[in-house]
Amino acid sequence: MIAGMKIVPVRAFRDNYIWLLVHGRHAAVVDPGDAAPVLAHLRQHDLSMCGILITHQHSDHIGGVEALLSHQNVPVYAPRNESFSFPHQAVSEGNKIHFPELETTLDVLDVPGHTAVHIAYYGGNSLFCGDTLFGCGCGRIFDGSCEQLFHSLEKLAALPEKTKIYCAHEYTLANLRFARMIDPENPALMAREHTDSALIAQGLPTLPSTLALEKATNPFLRCDTKAIQRAALQINPHAADSAETTFCTIRELKNRY
Ligand SMILES: [Zn+2]
């Protein structure tokens, strides 16, 4: 991100984060599932919205859009090939979104899997990935497929290691417990649990993480390692045939956990 840009979490519901990209008095809002906490933050910090970015159609990501638009009419960007009740510009991979107020441009990436249609926004070493990649975990499969999610995470894993991961939920500690179970010898995982538990105890977010940290700790990005393959083989004798099969097996294991 450019100098002077701040990325601020606004909490909503039980564990959602609505990320605000703030520069000067301007803010772009990512996945506003609820308008009230966003409006309160805008008022409290004397900010004006310059746009709304949507990753996918689940209500905890879009529920506040109409109320925000009635407060201030701004462009809304949302994934192509999906229907939304609010006016928006449909975007997909290859599109760029420029915010002159923020002096920044974001690239759109297609990252289906959690849902059949899901996009992420990437720019200035920051990734807004909705419910695709989480702190030490990944999204559940709703109407997308496990194969889609595997390829989407591969795409995200190819971004620079210093990329900051701004996902939409605070699931990190629960994900760490599952990761510790299937990857018990991983020292990076133990260190992360220590650090992130301390953050949560202080009421602070564990996010953003970095792609480097996710690659060192997140089992869903480590399907080519012996430890993760070993865990997957316990429930599927073919789990080690490919990284994709290992991935789908541990996604299934996590569903049962
Ligand atoms: Zn979702």
Describe the protein's architecture and organization.
The structure is a single chain. By secondary structure, the protein is α/β, with parallel strands linked by helices. 34% of the residues lie in helices and 25% in strands. The chain is built from nine helices and 14 strands. The chain has a six-stranded mixed sheet with strand order 1-2-3-4-5-6, covered by helices on one side. The termini are far apart. The relative contact order is 0.11. The mean pLDDT is 97. Zinc ion binds next to loops.
Task: Tell me the radius of gyration.
Answer: 18 Å
Low-confidence stretches: none
Distance N to C terminus:
37 Å
Number of strands: 14
Give a short account of the largest sheet.
Answer: 6 strands, mixed
Shape: globular
Ligands and ions found: zinc ion
What's the rounded overall pLDDT mean?
97
Strand arrangement across the biggest beta sheet: 1-2-3-4-5-6
Order of helices and strands: EEEHEHHEEEEEEEEHEHHEHHH
Number of helices: 9
What portion of the residues fall into strands of 2 or more residues? 15-25%
SSE-based structural type: alpha/beta
Q: What is the helix fraction of residues, given as a range?
A: 25-40%
What can be said about this structure in brief?
The chain is of the alpha/beta class.
